[in-house]
């Protein structure tokens, strides 16, 4: 709380006169987030001598200097607009504290004025309040999200199904440049593989059909080579001569 007191001491006085030393100090403005809470600090001072029980009472107005009261410490009054949302943090017979407002709404954005009433020992009852007040500005909450890009969380999701010689691409979102290039490369590789397989099958079928029978009336090439061989020819002549029929002698007479 020490820093709060220092801050309050540095703030300009809401009320200050030359002939009497008394005043109310509040910050000029405070920012808070809708749905959250805020504490409006205040500090008052004076030069009067007080009795043992000065009966100090704190009140708060809103909207303007002569606006309606929204809080009365002595009676416990709380404006219906702030029902169950307004609490005064103050130590009895102290000179500073906080007005706390919770569950802030846009309608809470306005100016708030703290007023103090007390009994003096020689000068009777005295009362004063802040002149400029504190302007409360309620803003919308700023939502910040950090997105981590991973392979599974990209903005483009591509599912590829390869069947026979075609590719089916189903997109949950428009394809990015990288995904488009990837699909194009995959398509080219698939088409190249299919064409290579078809060429291999065609070559294999052609190789099986190269062995055919010779046409009728013609000898195979190996037969021609057999008879063109001189050794084969000599064997043929020798074999033929040994099989000649014996001569038959004729009888005279």
Provide a quick synopsis of the model.
With 253 residues, the protein is an alpha+beta fold. The protein has 4 helices and 13 strands. The radius of gyration is 56 Å and the shape is rod-shaped.
Describe this structure as you would to a colleague:
The chain is α+β, with helices and mostly antiparallel strands and 253 residues long. 25% of the residues lie in helices and 28% in strands. It is built from 4 helices and 13 strands. It has helices at residues 2-10, 177-208, 221-228, 230-242; strands at residues 23-25, 29-33, 38-45, 57-62, 69-72, 77-78, 86-90, 96-101, 111-119, 125-129, 134-139, 158-163, 166-171. Strands 2, 4, 5, 6, 9, 10 and 11 form a 7-stranded mixed β-sheet that branches. Strand 9 (111-119) and strand 10 form a beta hairpin. The longest helix has 32 residues, at 177-208. The model is unreliable at 1-19, 146-152, 155-172, 223-228, 232-246 and 248-253 (pLDDT under 50).
Question: Structural class of the secondary elements?
Answer: alpha+beta
Terminal CA distance = 173 Å
Major sheet summary line: 7 strands, mixed
**Could you tell me the number of beta strands?**
13
Structural key phrases:
253 residues, alpha+beta, four-stranded antiparallel beta sheet, 28% strand, disordered C terminus
How would the blueprint of this fold be written?
Blueprint lengths: L1 H9 L12 E3 L3 E5 L4 E8 L11 E6 L6 E4 L4 E2 L7 E5 L5 E6 L9 E9 L5 E5 L4 E6 L18 E6 L2 E6 L5 H32 L12 H8 L1 H13 L11
Parallel strand pairs: 2-11
Antiparallel strand pairs: 1-3, 3-8, 4-5, 4-9, 5-6, 7-8, 9-10, 9-11, 12-13
